[in-house]
Structure formats: structure tokens, C-alpha cells
Amino acid sequence: MSTIRIRQTRREDIPALIALQTRIYPTIPPWNKLDLITQLEMFPQGQIVAEDDSGLLGCASSIMVMWDDWAEEHNWYEITSAGTFDNHNPDGRTLYGVEVFVDPESQGQGVGHLLYEGRRQLCRAMNLKRIIVCGRLPGYQPHKNAMTAEYYARKVIWGDVNDPVLSFQLHEGFSYCGVMPEYIPEDVESCGYASLLVWLNPDYDANTPTVIRDDIDFQLGA
């Protein structure tokens, strides 16, 4: 098994990312090439991929936001400007996780953990206060007639139900904050719902400005 590496996304990765995303989420429209180019131009530091010698295994995309502008309610299309990242705000102190996906054939190899660790490394290096994510609830659909999405999320937290995304995020040290309805309406598995979670940067210094660094070297591998 070759070493899994984390690095910033490059333009030449775009075709492989679109193909991988299409395969993983067949019911959700994938990004297009122009959106991905725009994302890289808007906030290159926040776009990372996992790879090994065989090619790309997954990616994680992020933007910076003023969280008070979005905390009450939002959906994926609003906060990401429909994937263009026009709402990226370099004055914000919150790293907002837009997307994470991993090749199903690579699951169980620690790819997701390394991508999340890459985000944490970015958050620390830039002195951001926190990471906010809205994660899909892909295990909810079979339970939708028996319980609300909120109660389903609670049962995942209590350990009564395993959800492929929320269980993973809790294991990664994120704290559950609630459920967002209609986050991605076409997400059939999640019935449109997402869980809202936060990771607080233990190294955050409120007296030190955010540093938009171009030299972040992700010393991560498995």
C-alpha cells in the first residue's frame, strides 16, 4: 500500500475531482470546471486533496466566513454562493467546511481523518477561531417515518445508531450543534438535512491577527 499524502489542490486535479464526485454522489449535481477554478483562485489554501501513487483519493474544500452572518440559518447554496465561493471573507475567523468526499474504494484507510487533520492544521496555521461544518446525514432516510432528523442525530450521538458521516465527525472531535433543514434539498439519503458541528481551535489567540499563509506544508501521511 502506497503512502497517502495531503496537499493543496491544483488545477490539473480538476477533471479527476469532477469524475470522483460524480461517482460518489450520483444524485447531487457535481461541481463544474469553472467553479473549481474559481474556488482555487478565491481561496487556494482552503482546497486540499488526498492522494497516493495511484491518484486522487478524496478532497476537502473550505472558505473563511464571518460566522455571525450565517449562524442562524443557511443552506449550502447560500453560504457557498452556489459553489463559486463568492462569500469567502478573508476577514472572517471561521473556517467553513464546504465539502469532503473520499473514494469509496479507499474508505477505511484513514483518508477522511487526514483531510480533517489537514483542515485543523490550516486552522491553526492561520490563527482561525474554529471550523464549522454542516455534514450530511446519509443514514437518515430509512428512519424518516419513525423519527425527526433531530432525534435521529441524537441517537447517533448516544451511540444507538451509526451514521457514516455524523459518527465520523464526532469521532474527529467535532461538537454537535443542531440540524439544518433543506441544506442540500436534492440529497435524497439525508432527506435534505445536515448536522451542524464545530471544532474549536485550542491554539487560537484573539489578540493575534489572522495570517493568510501561502506556505502551509501539510506534513500528513498514512
Structure description:
This protein is an alpha+beta fold and 222 residues long. The chain has two domains: 1-129, Aminopeptidase (3-Layer(aba) Sandwich); 131-200, no CATH class. Helices cover 25% and strands 23% of the residues. Strands 1-2-3-4-5-7-6 form a seven-stranded mixed β-sheet, sandwiched between helices. α4 links the parallel β4 (94-102) and β5. It is globular. The protein starts with a strand and ends in a 22-residue tail after the last strand.
Order of helices and strands: EHHEEHEHEHHEE
C-alpha geometry:
globular
Helix content: 25-40%
User: What would you give as the CATH superfamily of the largest domain?
Assistant: Gcn5-related N-acetyltransferase (GNAT)
Q: Quick one: how many beta strands?
A: 7
Q: How many structural domains are formed by the residues?
A: 2
- For this structure, the CATH topology of the largest domain is Aminopeptidase
> Do you know the CATH architecture of the largest domain?
3-Layer(aba) Sandwich
**In this structure, how is the largest beta sheet organized?**
7 strands, mixed
Radius of gyration: 17 Å
Low-confidence sequence ranges: none
Query: Structural class, please?
Result: alpha+beta
Give the overall pLDDT as a whole number. 92
Trace the largest sheet across and list its strands.
1-2-3-4-5-7-6
* Termini gap: 10 Å
* Residue share in β-strands: 15-25%
User: Helix tally?
Assistant: 6
Which CATH C-level class of the largest domain is it? Answer: Alpha Beta
InterPro entries: Acyl_CoA_acyltransferase, GNAT_dom
Domain N-acetyltransferase: 4-203
Pfam family, one: Acetyltransf_1
Protein name: N-acetyltransferase domain-containing protein
